[in-house]
Amino acid sequence: MFEGVHTALVTPFKNGIVDEGAFGKLINGQFEAGIKGIVPVGTTGESPTLSPNEHVRVVELAVQSADGRGPVIAGTGANSTREAIELTLGAEKAGATASLQVAPYYNKPSQEGLFRHFKAIADATSLQIVLYSIPGRCGIEIGVDTVARLAAECPNVVAIKEAGGTPERVSQLAAALPDSFEILSGDDSLTLPFMSVGAGGVISVASNLIPAEMASMVGAVLDGDWPLAQSIHRKFYPLFSGFLKLDTNPVPVKTALGIVGRIDPELRLPMTAMAEAKAAELRQILEQLDLV
Length: 292
Fold this sequence. Notes:
Layout (H helix, E strand, L loop, with lengths): L3 E5 L4 E2 L2 E2 L1 H13 L4 E3 L12 H15 L6 E3 L5 H14 L3 E5 L8 H14 L3 E6 L1 H4 L5 H10 L3 E6 L4 H10 L5 E4 L5 H6 L4 E4 L6 H12 L3 H21 L4 H9 L16 H13 L4
Parallel strand pairs: 1-4, 1-10, 5-6, 6-7, 7-8, 8-9, 9-10
Antiparallel strand pairs: 2-3
Helix pairs in contact: 1-2, 2-3, 3-4, 4-6, 6-7, 9-10, 10-12, 11-12
């Protein structure tokens, strides 16, 4: 179900509030470009800065704008199990297809705590659950055995967004999980290596800016055309690496979208605008790729 490219959407702001019009246009452009689905209110959507009401409203807008063209995987994770359940039930009521559940951050639970956290959420909702392991942000990973245990005991835990940084980890997951369990890359630059060992696609930041190109790259892999996929990867690798090195997500992608005129690049504290020198470097990358 989640094979392909799903865009980890930015949340556009204007004068301190969610820019609903810009958000709808962004989503429409995604589907017109061939993206499989969308992921609102994740890390890229600045979810930690949204109020609970804003969070649910953004999911509602995403569902309305998607209009049945593809799955809406709402980011509803939290480091409080109760809060994650409340956000997930809000997304379910809003019409989301699935829930993206990040590993609890800051409090660093044990693997048993992770299992119980995710199981409690899965038991509380009928939504499909996509786990999200990103140790670089959370300080812990969702262990392979924990993922396998959840897949075995929770029928609606069906996929994982893997941002652990190594194809070896993807290989371990693929070996431990049933074929029906889907693995998605959580890093644009690692999409091809991850797909080479069992991932079925990517939850992409870059596709906010280059949706057609990301859809073509992943589609080429799924069609067995590795030379085409590799050529697209090589072309856009400077953008992937620039997003990673120039500032913390979502600052670079919002800055890029602002440069090309698709959204106002406004951020919410504690995120701040990119330094001028880095913004100039990003603009140079965009110019070299004929994106501006």
